[in-house]
Request: fold
Amino acid sequence: MTPWYALLPLAAVAFVLGWWASRRASARRSGAAVNELSSDYFRGLNYLLNEEQDKAIEVFLKLAEYNRDTVETHLALGNLFRRRGEVDRAIRLHQHLVSRPNLSEPMKTVALLELGEDYMRAGLLDRAEALFADLVAMNAHAPSALRHLIAIYQHERDWNKAIEHARRLEVMTGEDEAPMIAQFYCELAERSRQHGARVEARDYLEQAFRCQPDCVRAWMLTGRCMPRKRSMPRPCRPTRRRSARTSPSCPRSCRRC
Reply:
């Protein structure tokens, strides 16, 4: 049985479409058209509650066709497609929205953000990175775009770019991103340690401690980056020959010294 939280995207779609249906109902003069629209909406909602998601989507798509200018409805449907794993469908829908000549700038940036998330889900990280970078440059949904960029750089293990964008996010939002940045420095330190660059690794760890003095991982890596001293066993040297032969604490190999 599908868990209740899996139905949240569908519930959001149903809410948007319900609001739109009521708005259309107040504007329409023909009672027959209103009844048909309301009937389709409640039929789709019934499918949703009975976990018949495919049928619900088809009904909601039909409702969206009544007015192609309902951008919010299309955005909700695209988000639903992506969550269901139908990424190609989501990409086509969001690309269609972005290409609309009469689309307002705020709604266009929302569609671009959703399209970037589609690309991420599809594994097209280069396209997603370019979209999110454009949004940051336009200062449109920049915090969300920066978080997506950080996730991309983490996936690509580009820790320097991850640190750079995490600091930008910190300045933009005022939120403390120091623990996350400290982890990125630890990643750099671990990579340097594995390549034998212990001095460079310790420099990265110093940066990690500046971000987060109690960073447990940085302390563990510090121990691994310390030079290892080989300790030679000290031979037993008795002061008197006789005591060495009779001392029970002296190893057998030393009793003939």
User: Anything to note?
Assistant: Confidence is low (pLDDT under 50) at residues 25-35, 241-247, 249-257.
